[in-house]
Amino acid sequence: MNWSRAIRTKVSEKLTWDNLLPSEQPVYVSSLVYSFGVFTLSSLVFCIASGVIMAAKGPLWYQHTSLGDFMRSVHFWSVQAFFFFMTMHLVGQFFMGSWREGRAMTWVLGSLSFAVAVVEAFTGYLSRGDFFAQWNQVQSKDAFNGAGLDGFLNILNNGQVYGLHIAVLPLILIGLVGLHMLAVRSKGVVPPYRAKSRSKEDA
Amino acid sequence: MAKTRRARFSRDTLQFPQKEFDMVKEGTVSLVIAGVLIVGVAAFFGAPYRPAVTNQQIASTKPILLEQTALGDLDGTGEMSHYGPPYNHGFHGEAPQHVQSILGYHPQTFWGTPYPVNTATDDVLNPLRMLATASNNAALSGAVATFQAAPFATQQTWAMNYANALKKAAVVNGRVVVPSGDYGPVQTMMTAELSFAKSGLLSGALDRESNPGTIYRYNIQDDLLFLQGKALHQIAHGIDMKGGQWGINHDEQPYPGPWWLTPYTFLYQIPPGSTAPWGDEFVAYTIAFLFVLLTLLPWIPGLNKLPRALPVHRLIWRDWYRRLETNKTCATCPLKAACTQEFRGPKVAATAASASPACYEGKQNVPMPPRPEGKGTSGAPFGM
Q1: Greatest CA separation found in chain A?
Q2: CB A132 within 8 Å of CB B247
């Protein structure tokens, strides 16, 4: 088997330009619920942009300067927006049963993204460098230790926590979100459930 | 006769009637809207920030508490002294006191003690040795040496006597004054520890203990653990930040906190999360189980059909269902048997490869109203 040819064939079949950059969509895509996904992505863009600036200038900058304080505020509200839209997106997709008709992996990727985002946000809270970070850092050691995660992560080691927050977890999150989007685009938006009125007509 | 094939039932979304959609434009619009909202709210409200609590502050405002904390670390009565893995195996041969175990399952111990903490050495003896050297203080150096040379029982007697004395202590001009008693070198050591903390240098000494052999001190373990007992709990209680007060779920100021942790925090408000010594382990694995349920939802019988039973999807796709009723296409759908399979039987349907997809309200079968060039037929704002 030629791996290169197999991958090229698979990718060409699944990821056509019509799927990746569509100029049409099914007419049933007609609800504000569909906007939660794109607003989640937009919020993530602001999380990343503000986070990159904060990482470039360093923790002292975002704790002790007025511009740093503003950028920390942008980061804070980006995260709030990100979780708000992501949660609404999750709830909306649940009610649409969006795992149907071959879209289970899309759901799984979305769910994993949510979980990684929670840990990403938590390490961010611990990187604030204020009392909230201090208190939750010492409190969460019991949770991490009790769960058996202590061998991998010393939650009291800021070098590790900060590194996870600004590099490792964002890379994983961006990767998962990217795969989630590719899955959405390659399969298309899940069609509606069969109309209940049909049952009567079928009978 | 048309060749038939058995395939997993799925409808090609491209077979549905389409409308105009500009993904790039709508992505850009959403980015602008999100940006204006986020930057505007950030500029108007700012973000919460309460400075971290330092050893220096505790030493200045609660000197007795600081000495009690240091004494607990020295005599093994402090929580971290006998915590157990991943920090230590208890204090002076006593069993660890904070190993969480459910039915004999205690993953906390699986990794050993990768982050070793000996509170007496790390928090008191080594910092005081450094202080004695730095200040050329022979009395302090001698006190530390005397304490270390004494039998363990004697050390404990001195420490217990001083712990009892601290309960009756008074603060005079920032110094802790206790009644006379048999404290051995402990009183000298605790007085020096308090002075060290007041100077602001104790944190540096503790960070040095957490980062042996390097000047790059990223690990703040010992510094955080020194205050993690009564000192931080008293402050956290005053601002409703303890676990039983929905702790991490809210910020200490009137800002939204990490509200997405609500299910997690809720488990700490009820037994056994709120009462059992293995509460953290219980909560962690309960949340992990719920997450697995969420992730595997597509394959969980019953739950994966729940959205169809709930009427919310009727609201979300109300335009589509109204359209079907208007066009009356469902009654003539040649694939209605296959459609039924989707919801009532195995997800396999016999479909004719060349069948016209009328159940999609296909373009070929239902006359569509003429679409204005460059315009969509419906008002869907975004398609992601």
Answers
A1: 71
A2: no
- List pLDDT tens digits, range B106-142: 999 999 999 999 999 999 999 999 999 999 999 999 9
Task: Give the residue extent of every domain in chain B.
Answer: 55-80+117-234, 239-295, 332-364
User: Residue A161 in contact with residue A172, Cβ under 8 Å?
Assistant: no
- Write out chain B residues lying below 8 Å of A195, CB-based: 321, 324-325, 330
Q: Which of B228, B260, B290, B343 to mutate to test the interface with A (most CBs of A within 10 A)?
A: B260
* Residue A91 to residues A96, A107, B267, B316, Cα–Cα distance (Å): 9, 12, 21, 12
Least Cα distance to B382 among B16, B36, B37, B25 occurs for: B25
Q: At what angle do helices B152-167 and B186-199 cross, to 10 degrees?
A: 60
Exposure on the CB side of residue B203, measured as CA atoms within 13 A: 17
Distance from CA of B183 to the nearest CA of A (A): 32
CB B63 within 8 A of CB B175: yes
- Before B272, cis peptide (omega within 30)? yes
| pLDDT tens digit sequence for B198-217 | 999 999 999 999 999 999 99
Q: What is the ipTM of this complex?
A: 0.92
Set of chain B residues whose Cβ sits within 8 Å of the Cβ of A35 = 30, 381-382
- Does A156 sit within 8 Å of B221, measured CB to CB? yes
Please say whether the dihedral angle defined by the alpha carbons of residues B306, B307, B308 and B314, taken in this order, is positive or negative.
positive
Question: Does the beta-carbon distance from A132 to B251 stay under 8 Å?
Answer: yes
Asked if the C-beta of A191 comes within 8 angstroms of chain B's C-beta atoms, the answer is yes
Spell out which residues of chain A touch residue B281, defining contact as CB-CB under 8 Å: 146-147
